[in-house]
Write a structure and sequence with these properties.
Length: 305
């Protein structure tokens, strides 16, 4: 198995907590998300990774895309201090708001769902990672959530935004292929559960998700052995997105897409099948701003009927 790709150590946590970047995260927790990576962190705003934070000797350094500091800047990255990150934060937000967020509505909605859910103490779930990728393997999971109760169930979530998001290189077929590859490789038990344990231990070092359930999620034994798969579709205006989803799932419906899952993979993933892959399909007309529970929310319509 390739090396695990999530987790920081106590020394990293102490340097981060002593930096102004940690204060920024605390002050703007309602709009930022902190992703735990392999000996570094990513800070997300409106679904975009605005910077990476690393421990360099006994100090904390920030790597940020130049275009987020200056919308007219060339491509490339710049290293700044945590103090400078705080100083530039309003300008970073303005550049993203003016130049990027409207072009990336799905990612924007993704972070709304995550932040809304994690601010909701009544939610049964907590979102612990976004944009999860496996080293040397295809695909990514938009959101990973776990339940707050033991044993912690794991939800692997793919988000779609509107009817135009179902096909192509990041469409339903590609996600189904990636999910099946993940299951067949045994990566849930061998890779993801240990990484989730490391993520929760890392969060516990600086109280980012400061809730009692962290303690039971820091051991591999604290997790359910089977993941749940979810497709969440927002902006299902006039039920168009659900109709399009059907055409990319089945080959026996009017107007079926040529690259539908049933035809290409020989599976109807809306029913029990030989691969044991039966995602839950959730649809909402909302853009995500009023959804405060990532999975169990009255704003969702469940299923394809």
């Amino acid at each position: 198995m390739d090396k695990l790709t999530r987790g920081i150590d106590k020394g990293f946590a102490e340097v981060f907590k002593a930096s102004e970047a940690y204060g920024l995260l605390q002050d703007y927790s309602y709009e930022l998300f902190l992703g735990i990576r392999n000996d570094y962190i990513n800070m997300y705003y409106r679904g975009l990774s605005i910077c990476k934070g690393r421990k360099v000797c006994d100090r904390f350094e920030i790597e940020i895309a130049k275009r987020y500091l200056d919308s007219m800047a060339d491509q490339g990255y710049e290293t700044i201090s945590p103090v400078e990150l705080v100083r530039y934060y309003d300008q970073i937000k303005k550049n993203i708001n003016d130049n990027y967020a409207e072009k990336r509505k799905e990612k924007d909605a993704q972070q709304r769902l995550v932040n809304n859910n994690n601010a909701n103490l009544e939610s049964a779930w907590v979102c612990v990672d976004v944009e999860y990728t496996r080293e040397n393997a295809p695909g990514r999971f938009n959101i990973i959530a776990i339940t707050k109760t033991y044993p912690h169930r794991v939800a692997l979530i793919e988000l779609k935004y509107g009817a135009t998001a179902m096909g192509g290189s990041s469409g339903i077929l590609k996600h189904a292929e990636d999910y099946l590859s993940f299951l067949k490789a045994g990566d849930f038990g061998q890779r993801l559960i240990p990484e989730l344990s490391r993520i929760m231990r890392s969060y516990g070092m600086f109280d980012y998700i400061g809730n009692p359930y962290i303690d039971t999620a820091t051991s591999d034994d604290g997790f359910s052995r089977t993941p749940g798969f979810y497709f969440i579709t927002l902006k299902n205006d006039d039920d168009r997105a659900r109709g399009t989803m059907r055409r990319y799932l089945w080959n026996n419906v009017h107007g079926a897409a040529r690259d539908n899952v049933m035809y290409m993979l020989g599976l109807d993933i809306t029913k029990a099948n030989k691969e044991n892959f039966t995602p839950v399909f959730l649809f909402s007309d909302s853009d995500g701003s009023d959804i405060v529970d990532i999975i169990s929310n009255e704003k969702y319509n469940i299923g394809l009927d």
